[in-house]
Amino acid sequence: MKTSNISRRSILRGLGAGSVLLSGMWKSASAAGTEQPTRMALFFHGNGAHPDWAPTGSGSAFTLTPHLSGLEQVRNDIIIFRRLMAQRDMSLNPHKGATLDLSTAGGQDSLDQVLAKYVKMTQPTPIPSLELAIGRTNGGGGDAPSLALVGRQFLPGIRNPLFLYDRLTKAMVPSNPMMTNGGAEKAIAVRKSLLDYLRDDVSVLRGRVGGPERMRIDSYLDSIRDLESSLGGFTGGVMAGAACTKGEPPKTAMDFEAHMSDMPMVNRMFMDTIAMGFACGVTRVSNMMWGGGECHEALGWLGVGQWHSTSHGNPAGSGQQTLIKLHTFLSNEIAYFIQKLKALDLFDSTQVLWGTQNGNSTETGFSKENHDRRNALFILAGRSGGYYKTLGKVVDCNEAYHNDLYLHMANAFGLKTTTVGKPEWCKGLLPGVV
Question: Is residue 314 located within the same domain as residue 419?
Fold first, then answer.
């Protein structure tokens, strides 16, 4: 990865933290062919995957299952890892062990935090990483506020899309009083947007680039406008989440906490804001938890009253159709995020991972072990600066541990290392990936 000797300040002539350092403009403004910095977004869902999720076929000749049908629209942009093992501490409850070891690969820090430390040492960003969550863990999975860990301790997770937006805009416009003490809600409510604050900065930058880059800038600005529009509706108040009891008044936007039943309403707000953070150079690393470890929450839009118990049913039974529908929904969400990155000219510099927290969903009556680690769902998208040259394929992992996939991801990010997580779980780079 190249390092530019042209500073942000010199490009934008002192616009500083209030500037919008949009990735597509970076090359043109510097006129030095500088590569975009690499980025990474992790998305993990709880309770395991339906055991029949994996596509048939091999290489580029694969057929997606109904579970992954949402990815058909982006099939040429992904790598599907089949027979990859989600290794975990087998002395612990399978949910607890997986919650600790999914994102850390058995190490002390989760992959996102390992890369956030690397960012701090090389190309610091205002926010080293984003730790986000929808839903909460329960039961044997323990209480995980997010799936980001430092020293095997969980970091807090943001569960409100407006808080996330507020955090990013404060990093971009730290001195503006409208962006302090929850001011983002007020700013959006009166339609005083981030772009209003940065209008002069953006005008200067648009004047320095050519026609194609101006079109790309406009794409960024339209994307932020769309995000603010959706958040503006959100500030008007939302209905109580799945965890609320009868008689409790509806939550307002600022005290709202996203639960799994809220996913259709709020998940794309989170995704759009992550993309904005990437595009504006505020952060390069994000970790999103969907339900965490053992998640007992409802999936209201699917008519599921208790996700965890439903996931443990006979995989061939009729009740498992709702779990398959959940996978289909999540695959559509990942496809949406991929298309968002493409629209913002971020796809080639980013890697996106969708994985399951807990191997497959079944108990020992239907698999070799409780939450069988074998053939866990892991799907990668993006080129990460050209590291992944060939996409649109299935890679058979021969039951290698997920550490070896994370090793690829660390190297793709620019961190040259031979192990990620617990060294004894690492067997080396997976063949067929690059």
Answer: yes
Nearest-10 crossing angle of helices 211-234, 263-279: 140
Q: What is the pLDDT of residues 349-388, one digit of tens each?
A: 999 999 998 888 888 878 888 888 998 999 999 999 999 9
State both tokens at 215.
Answer: 């079109």
Helix H or strand E segment including 44: strand 39-45
Strands 378-381 and 350-356: antiparallel
Cβ pair 102, 47 in contact under 8 A: no
Between the CA atoms of 401, 290, 133 and 151, what dihedral angle is there, to the nearest 10 degrees? Answer: -20
Distances in whole angstroms, Cα of residue 259 to Cα of each of 44, 99, 103, 332, 341: 15, 18, 21, 19, 25
Give the tens place of pLDDT for each residue, 105-120.
999 999 999 999 999 9
Residues in the chain: 434
Q: How many domains does the chain have?
A: 2
Instruction: Return the structure tokens found at 314.
Output: 């006979």
User: Residues with Cβ < 8 Å from 424, sequence gap 6 or more?
Assistant: none
Domain harbouring 103, CATH code: 3.40.720
DSSP code for 35: P
The Cα–Cα gap between 378 and 54 comes to 10
Residue 216, pLDDT > 90, answer no
* Statement to judge: residues 127 and 201 lie in one domain: no
Helices (H), 108-262: 111-122, 161-172, 183-189, 194-206, 211-234
Type and span of the H or E element at 82: strand 78-82
Residue in the structure block whose two tokens are 């009166």: 190
Task: Please tell me whether residues 219 and 314 are part of one structural domain.
Answer: no
Positive or negative torsion for Cα 94, 268, 339, 382: negative
Three-state DSSP class for 64?
Answer: coil
